[in-house]
Design a protein that fits this description.
The protein has 303 residues and is α/β, with parallel strands linked by helices. The chain has one domain (39-300): Alpha-Beta Barrel (TIM Barrel). The protein contains 11 helices and 8 strands. Strands 1-2-3-4-5-6-7-8 form an 8-stranded parallel barrel, surrounded by 5 helices. Helix 5 (90-102) links the parallel strand 2 and strand 3 (107-111). Helix 6 runs parallel beside helix 7. The protein is globular. 47% of the residues are buried.
Length: 303
């Protein structure tokens, strides 16, 4: 059961809401076992297809065009937002994988829509089936990571119930993904994980799922208070990172150098992928953000 008194107390003491005494162990480097090794950070530049949502939605850009754009940007890998795939037919997916290979562009992961917080057992089962299908797509693409969402907090449901429903959905999908060497990263965004203390909910979910193939797709811009403390609490369990340079709700600037320092201190190894949502046109705005990412990855990575 979530202890709200403990959570509020730790919020005052450390600047991040928590869910029970075991969270203290997590923040200090305890469970679960899939945490990052706190040494030798390896930070790679990347870009999410979502950065070009304006053009992908309108059909002015295809996923192949996005991969070619990655070559132009000189980044280390791409995160495929699946909303704009032409098809999920295996023939098309493997052709896209081959296209990326021929361009020398690794596919770091895919991002899917999901809503795992479902009170109805039948809907939870349907969600499990849907995510499993995306695991197959990721396998065909050669991607080792999938971004998933917890979903909205149902009206009238307690925090404890909602966490358990997500766990009951995420655990079997992680088991399925594990057989294919694919990791699921739950994002700190929307509904279940959309609170000032979202780090506590995510860590609670990971604790209960208890799988080395479960982690956090860490969007650094989605925290609304105590931002850097919450980022720091999540870094040991980050399996992919989405980067913007302003916080989503407050629009306050993000100190990216400070953020990279936190990831380096935590020993993060993986992609730091631009997910541009600025007012400037992506064709000029994305390259500016990517250049910052590339410079910081060089600064903070160890060889």
């Amino acid at each position: 059961m979530i202890n709200a008194v403990h959570r509020r107390g730790f919020l005052k003491a450390a600047g991040v809401a928590v869910a029970g005494p075991w969270i203290l162990d997590l923040v200090a480097g305890g469970r679960p076992e899939n945490k990052q090794s706190a040494s030798h950070p390896r930070l790679f530049s990347g870009c999410c297809a979502y950065s070009y949502a304006k053009y992908l939605k309108s059909g002015q850009m295809t996923m192949e065009d996005f991969i070619l754009k990655a070559v132009e940007l000189g980044i280390d890998g791409v995160d495929i937002t699946t909303y704009w795939l032409k098809s999920t037919d295996p023939g098309y997916i493997v052709s896209l994988r081959h296209f990326a290979f021929k361009q020398g562009v690794p596919i770091s992961g895919i991002a899917i829509r999901s809503s795992m917080c479902q009170p109805d057992p039948a809907k939870r089962a349907a969600e499990v089936a849907a995510v499993k299908k995306w695991v197959d797509v990721a396998e065909w693409l050669g991607a080792s990571h999938i971004r998933v969402f917890g979903g909205k907090l149902p009206t009238g449901a307690s925090e404890e119930q909602s966490i358990q429903w997500v766990v009951e959905t995420m655990k079997p999908t992680c088991d399925y993904a594990a057989a294919k060497g694919i990791t699921l990263g739950i994002e700190d965004d929307g509904g279940m994980t959309d609170t000032a203390g979202m780090a506590s909910r995510i860590l609670e979910i990971l604790h209960r799922v208890d799988s080395p193939y479960a982690g956090i797709n860490l969007d650094i811009a989605n925290f609304t208070e105590n931002e850097y403390k919450q980022i720091e609490a999540c870094v040991p369990y980050a399996t992919a990172v989405h980067i913007r340079d302003v916080f989503g709700e407050t629009k306050g600037p993000i100190d990216l150098d400070r953020v990279w320092g936190i990831f380096a201190q935590g020993g993060y190894k993986g992609y730091m992928s631009a997910e541009y949502e600025g007012e400037e046109d992506p064709m000029t705005g994305v390259p500016k953000l990517v250049e910052k990412i590339k410079d910081l990855c060089k600064k903070y990575s160890t060889v």
